[in-house]
Design brief:
Helix 1 packs parallel to helix 4 and helix 2 (62-80) packs parallel to helix 3. The chain has four helices and ten strands, in the order βββαβαβββββαβα. The protein starts with a strand and ends in a 14-residue tail after the last helix. By secondary structure, the protein is of the alpha+beta class. Its main location: cytoplasm.
């Protein structure tokens, strides 16, 4: 199944298409570091993404990062569907040299986000590192996920954010894997 969405505001114009798969993603947000993070996110999550964004990057990258997260989260929710037949829970630790991060995902339908990550620098290149949290929050809320994300150890800001993106991707992939065919809840509803 392939899902697509467009979103246009006074700050951004976004066209995204998302599907499960291991093919090449085509990503152009106008923010080089975000493109790099989305490329590795799709690789490690088992998703393919076509992403075209035009944003007001002459101001800064905030609207591009957050709005891309909003649209991506909505598409994840649509791709996951009614949640029957998935594992529901996923967890991943990802080391990158001196850095170690952990992400735990529950495809619960109840958005909740805990982000315990102090990034060691304010910028990676021209990218404001605080935008990583804004991006993830937008994805989590719009996808209806519960996510706990922790930077356990760090040192290099690029590694810290990359490790968080990879651990989120791998935890999400695990949570989206096929389960035993039942809706993964004793309540009978998610």
């Amino acid at each position: 199944m392939k899902v697509s969405a467009s979103r246009e505001t006074k700050e951004t114009a976004i066209d995204l298409t998302l599907q499960r798969g291991t093919g090449e993603s085509v990503i152009d947000t106008g923010v080089g570091f975000l493109d790099h993070m989305l490329t590795l996110f799709t690789f490690h999550s088992g998703l393919e993404l076509e992403c075209r964004v035009k944003g007001d990057t002459h101001i800064d990258d905030h609207h591009t990062a957050e709005d891309t997260g909003i649209v991506l989260g909505g598409l994840l929710k649509e791709l996951i569907g009614d949640k029957s037949g998935i594992r529901r829970y996923g967890m991943s630790y990802v080391p990158m040299d001196e850095t170690l991060s952990r992400t735990v995902v529950d495809i619960s339908g109840r958005p909740f986000f805990v982000y315990d990550a102090v990034i060691s620098k304010e910028k990676v290149g021209t990218f404001d590192t605080e935008l990583a949290e804004e991006f993830f929050r937008a994805v989590v809320i719009n996808a209806g996920l519960t996510v706990h994300m922790d930077l356990i150890r760090g040192g290099n800001a690029h590694h810290e954010i990359e490790s968080l993106f990879k651990s989120f991707a791998r935890a999400l992939r695990e949570a989206m894997e096929p389960g035993d065919g039942r809706l993964p809840s004793t309540k009978g509803v998610l």
